[in-house]
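Weekly structure sync, notes
Attendees: PL (lead), two postdocs, one rotation student
Agenda item 3: pending single-chain targets
PL asked that the sequence for the first pending target be pasted directly into the notes so everyone works from the same version. It is reproduced below exactly as submitted, 393 residues in total.
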Amino acid sequence: MSEDITSTLLPASRVDFFALDDGTAAHAQNLTQDWRFARVEVRSERMNIEGAISRYGESASPELIIVETDDIGDGFIAQLGNLAGVCAATTDAVVIGPKNDVHLYRSLVEMGIRDYLVRPVSQEDLVKIIARTLVEKRGLSGSRLVTVVGSKGGVGTSAVSQTLAWNMSETLKQKTMLLDVAGSAGSIGISHGLEPSASLAEAVRLGGSGSDDDLKRICQTVTEHLTLLVCGGEMMLADPADPDAVETLVNRLMQKFPVVVLDLSHAAQPVQKRMLARASEIVIVTTPMLSALRNARTLLSEIRNLRVHVEDVSLVVNMQGLAPSEEVPLKDLKDAMGMEPAAVVAWQPKIFAASETAGKPVGQNKAAADIMNALMPLAARGAAVENKAVAAE
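Predicted structure, written out during the meeting:
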């Protein structure tokens, strides 16, 4: 990573300290006044690892835990395992201990601990490890990952993804990357007249070890502000991509694009889980049919168990009017889902069929104005920018 990540505004996240030493506690307090941590919620408590285990047995864990110990014996190692058992899979941990021990360091890293620091730790060393961790997890400051996931197949997840990306890029003028991670099952290229530029396996390989030029080669420019990474060419039944590799690819893209829209339809479940936990904004797409809404409610419950910030989840009700007599009325949706839909999109199949047939984005079709307008406020929220056109209405 060529950028100096200690001289940039860090992404929105949470870091919890469990400090024993006065110096460590003071460092944690200093971070709350550090401009680089303006978007980072820093919490600090004077308790040991047992307190941390108790804490996360009752509440959600953050993106990063920093736990201090005076004892690095077998008992502490066992407690680290207990801590992992009550934390989300996406939570990282850093241990601050009393002495330098190479064998201990290696064993902790093998366990999945992000790093082991020897006390006393300097303020700047602490900033470096936190910054590196958060940037790898959330991307560089200001970049947004918007994940779009369907409650079931056939609800229009890809159509919503493409419409959001078009609104973000062409109306809000945000430099936007649109991709899916479904390999040959993906469809984002069809409505843009694009053929796959790489297999999914090649794309994730380049995300991990390729140069910036390698990545640029497989990205296809649609407009000045919209770029697509269209994958395909492998067997439909090929093994799914590794979640770590997909996350590395997304992180690389977020270094170049302020907004990345990720269509999760047809993505493998482990990849969906990782990206939903990682996202800045989640869009759940459903139809007003009972089966789709039931799945959406279950999915929403699972997302709540994955994430620290659940207020960044929005619901899109798509295909309203497909089967009016069988649909759950909009007035009953809030009670059924526990949240208001962020957007309701009417059933207009000819518009999306024409887009795929002609190989032209829906946003270029004047007849799609109602669809574009319905999703515009959500696009502005996902990109974290003000939509002046909406605000003026």
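Discussion points:
- The longest helix spans residues 290-306.
- Confidence is low (pLDDT under 50) at residues 389-393.
Action: rotation student to compare against the earlier draft before next sync.
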